[in-house]
Design goal:
CATH topology of the largest domain: OB fold (Dihydrolipoamide Acetyltransferase, E2P)
Strand order of the largest sheet: 3-4-5-8-7
Number of helices: 2
Helix content: 10-25%
Order of helices and strands: EEHHEEEEEE
Strand content: 35-45%
Bound molecules: zinc ion
CATH architecture of the largest domain: Beta Barrel
Shape: elongated
Structural class: mainly beta
Number of domains: 2
Radius of gyration: 20 Å
Distance between the termini: 74 Å
Low-confidence stretches: none
Number of strands: 8
Mean pLDDT: 87
CATH class of the largest domain: Mainly Beta
CATH superfamily of the largest domain: Nucleic acid-binding proteins
Largest sheet: 5 strands, mixed, barrel
C-alpha cells in the first residue's frame, strides 16, 4: 500500500436550516444528524423533547391485532399511529383509554410506551 492511497473520509452533508412546524423557530439540522435520520425532522429539538417527555391521553380508535397496528385518538381530536411493539402494558382494543408518549418516527409521529388503562373511557 502506498502512502498516497486515498483514506476513507467521513463526508458529511452540509448543515441545513429548518423551520419547526410546531413553534415556527428556525433550527439547524446538522450534517451529522442528517446521516443518522433519513427524514428531516418536522419539529425543533425543544419541541421534540417536550413531546417525548409529556405523557398524553387518548382512546384507541381501532387496532388490527393481526397486523399489529392501529390508531389512537388524542385529547385534541387528532389520530396518532400506534404499533403493538410500543405497548408496554395491556392489550389495545377499540374504546380503551390509554396513556402514551409521542415520538417522531420515520413515517411521522407515533405513540410509544403505551399503557392501557384498566377502566374503559367514559362515554
Ligand atoms: Zn419547536
Amino acid at each position: 500500500m502506498s502512502e498516497t492511497a486515498p483514506i476513507a473520509t467521513l463526508t458529511l452533508p452540509s448543515d441545513r436550516f429548518l423551520t419547526c412546524a410546531h413553534c415556527n423557530v428556525t433550527f439547524v439540522w446538522t450534517g451529522w444528524e442528517q446521516r443518522q435520520e433519513d427524514q428531516e425532522p418536522s419539529r425543533c429539538p425543544g419541541c421534540r423533547h417536550l413531546l417525548a417527555s409529556t405523557r398524553r391521553w387518548g382512546v384507541v380508535k381501532w387496532f388490527d391485532p393481526r397486523r399489529g397496528y392501529g390508531f389512537i385518538t388524542m385529547a385534541d381530536g387528532t389520530d396518532i399511529y400506534v404499533r403493538r411493539r410500543d405497548v408496554v402494558r395491556g392489550k389495545l382494543r377499540r374504546g380503551r383509554l390509554v396513556s402514551f408518549r409521542v415520538v417522531e418516527g420515520k413515517q411521522g409521529p407515533r405513540a410509544v410506551k403505551v399503557r392501557v388503562q384498566p377502566t374503559r373511557a367514559p362515554r
